[in-house]
Amino acid sequence: MLQFVTEKETVWERLKAETRPIFLYGMGDGAVRILSAMRTYQIPVAGIFASDEFVRGHDFAGYPVRKLSELEAELDDFVIVLAFAVCSPQMIDRVRMLGERYQLYVPDVPVIGGGLFTRAYCDEHEEEIQAVYQSLADERSRQIYANIINFKISGNPAYLMDQVDSKDEVWNRVLQPTNHEIYVDLGAYNGDTIREMLEYTRGKYHRIIAVEPDKKNYKKLVKFVGDTPSVQCYQCTAWCVDTELPFAAKAGRQSTVAAEGVMTPARSVDNLLAGNPLTLLKMDVEGAEREALWGASRSIARYAPKLMISLYHRNEDIFELPLLVKRINPRYRLFIRHLPYIPAWETNLYAVCEDNGSTQYAE
């Protein structure tokens, strides 16, 4: 029995029991996945709405997209299911205010892969989840981990708002970057995390290797890097071996390895480095983190770089990836932090060794 998992009833069971009309707030891939789950559970959907300023008389998934103000004028009460990602302070405040006026749920659906993170799924993986919880290096990580698990089951956004960290906390207190980092950025996007690292190292570093498979994002990355010295960019996918993989380009960050797509080079970190060292490794590779970890396993075992790894793309990431890191190099101390985001995106694993990172969190 997982003592820190207090939620028993899933968000889907709660929605099923609702007698008030249920409206989805937002559109996009998340909404498609949520609608599919609601059909599976036979949960009726009364309609879809968006913020008033985004409504242009269009339809989504067979529903006319309505204005929130229209619903409020017509109905005394209804249930809101948030169906898109929120990260700006203004939108998080808007969601918080809506949650104060109405019953609001944020169902957790995987970005990649199938299945739902229910209490039954949690119980099925009780041993792995407990092992991760016990291996975490500080009480804050354990509290965040418990909150994320309870959120995934219940869809209650209060769990996400209760434990939120800033990038200052992550960079200055957990990772503590030096002026001599050899940084490998997997899923470099447009260079945003490189920009962050340079901000915290005051523009000083030893070497940067940036990997980004999406053609449009790669162009933005190369433009950002410009003629900055000691930076190498690769348009390829991070993987466990060097090969070619079908790659589906989508808007923004969501491009991913898929069953169908444009054949794209894939490289392992170990082969990219060819035995050379690294000190900091980031992975945000849209569900390929497990394969990318195996592809960096020799370097991780030998050099113990500080790690930044996304934990939210697949249901199993929340327990599988921390255990894999400890398997590759048992010396790591594991931290989990959640940056401002609804749903539980930007829940990340940070790993440092005693001789290669912060010791402030020792208990």
Gyration radius from CA atoms, angstroms: 21 Å
Q: Supply the number of structural domains.
A: 2
CATH topology of the largest domain: Rossmann fold
SS content category? alpha/beta
Tell me how many strands there are. Answer: 17
In short:
The chain is 37% helix and 21% strand. By secondary structure, the protein is an alpha/beta fold. The strands form 3 sheets. It has a 7-stranded mixed β-sheet with strand order 9-8-7-14-15-17-16, sandwiched between helices. It has a 6-stranded mixed β-sheet with strand order 3-4-2-1-5-6. It has a 4-stranded mixed β-sheet with strand order 10-13-11-12.
Characterise this structure.
This protein is α/β, with parallel strands linked by helices and 363 residues long. It has two domains: 11-162, Rossmann fold (3-Layer(aba) Sandwich); 167-353, Rossmann fold, CATH 3.40.50.150. 37% of the residues lie in helices and 21% in strands. The chain contains 15 helices and 17 strands. The strands form three sheets. Strands 9-8-7-14-15-17-16 form a seven-stranded mixed β-sheet, with helices on both faces. Strand 16 (332-338) and strand 17 (347-353) form a beta hairpin. The chain is globular. The two termini are 25 Å apart. Residues 357-363 have low confidence and may be disordered.
